[in-house]
Amino acid sequence: MKALMYLIKHEFRMEFRQKYAIASILLFTISTIYVVYQAMRKIDDSKVWNAMLWIILLFSAFNAISKSFSTEQRSLRMYLYTTVKPQQFVLAKLIYNMLFMVILGILALGVFSLFLGDGGLGPLKLGSYLLGVVMGSMGFACLLTLIAGIAAQTDSGIGMTAVLGLPITIPLILIIMRFTTQIMKGIPFSDNAENLLYLGVLNVGLIGLTYLLFPYLWRD
Amino acid sequence: MRHLWWKVLCGLLLAYITVFSLTVPLGPGVIGVDQAALTSGENTRLIQTYNAHLDAADLQVFLGVDDSSYLCTEILEIVEHDLVKVSFTLPENAPNKSFNVLMNNATDGTMFFPNAFRYAEGSSSSENTAWDICTVSVENQFNTAFSIPFQPIIYESIRNLMFHVPMWFTMFFLMGIGLVASIRYLAKGDVSMDLKALASVQVGLVFCVLGLITGSVWARFTWGAWWVNDPQLNGALVTFLIYVAYIILRNSIEDDQKRARIAAVFNIFAFVILFVLLMVLPRFSESLHPGKGGNPAFNKYDLDNTLRMVFYPAVIAWILLGYWIYQLRLRLHRIEKKYYYHENV
Amino acid sequence: MKTFKPLFLFSIVMMTPFFLSAQGAKSVLEETFFSSGKMPVVLSVVLIILLGLVIYIALLNKKVNKLEKDINK
Nearest CA of chain B to the CA of A181: how many Å? Predict the structure, then answer.
């Protein structure tokens, strides 16, 4: 537990030391939103609004998480390999990625609605939509951490994340889209909570799977 | 020539299902009517059937008013053995509704066609309608002839059940072999397990592609489009993409040991997510596939003895064929490994 | 084998208008496939499966040829 806390702290310290990496992720997300703004100005159709937001979030997630294994140097990895268990290491990564993705997701939602309007969401539905963004972002983090780990091991490097990850994100995207479109339609939360439950179960399952499988990636 | 028996069985079953599913006649059924819209008063309509043996002596045609009452029709003329001209009278104040057609005769049994006619010129309330209800009770008769069940719209293409559907069973069987091999590889580090996983995914992908293409052709001529947004189809496509990604992943790693290890990790992860997808998808969207989302199901007919006699053997036959091809692929991999890398696996 | 490939591509290209005409109410395509109770659909499905398996076996054959050549060298 102590080692885990240390690793999470280490993860944060490492990432924040490389401010340019975080800045590049933010720049990617914000400039994508700006490009969409230039193309569409204001989106009134809630369906298009929803789809655009999630496409941006999806690609931001790919962009952010695919970097998460490439920033470490090889020597550092060797050092970590001898000192900590891979399970602890991947849990720290997962927690860091989840927190980072949640912050990025909320930020993207904010900037997106600033530029493109709220797509007819209104303040009332915003709460449950925000919940969807939080859970969805966590889902991206759970799903893509292992994939990024796999991609980092290949010879073609982090470019593989998109190839391996895109087909795999489809179930997650389907559940999220279902949840958020139902919010947009004004379906009461109690009827919609089922989808959130699916999302939660999927996330927990993915974390478990990553925890079990990651040690096999680390046997260099 | 060890294990010859199941290969012989595979060949025999394939021959059996092909002959059976292409020669057994399709059961009788109603295809449609010449004009669906009805007018108040007397209507004369032609009803087209398929594979039926209509005969003036014992043919009865009814329009279903509701579940238990039927409107009588008068049979004017049996134009051909499968085409009949009937006339019937709608009461003056009939409500707007659609009518099912039921046809009875001794050789064909009861033929049913839902929503054959619709009436749209009347009132919306169904009270005070003086229906000319038949006094003859309509009894369901069963077609005793040996035949494949008739389904509206699908018609003869129901025979595809023995060719298109087992492709998916075979694919899942092979991908299952791949999953088990990957798990065993991670547990033991046995190189032969890695080759098994690779070979099963390669052959599984062949069946996946065949399933996609045949499904697309079948969809075009029943639903009218090469591709429709249907959970089954989406699931199939995602399966295809995931396993293509698996092959790409393998090709992007040089080191043998590392490749085997990482590919196994990805295979397990991907299979679990695929499983989730196939569980979740059907709940989310209406399916056009028979038996799902309120479609005319095969269910009623899955238990039909004629279909059962050929569908289950078909699944077994195609799975055996898939397994056979998989074994050939695997042996080729082994020989290559032995010759090029001097590794005995 | 070499001449076969362009021929195949050419025939695909030539068939495109045929497929595109499928947009109409009842195209040539539908006329063909709806005849005799949609039996041609079954026929094409069976043919696709057979052809697909034959193509796969041909690919395997090619691999075996290569291996054989290397072993006999």
Answer: 12
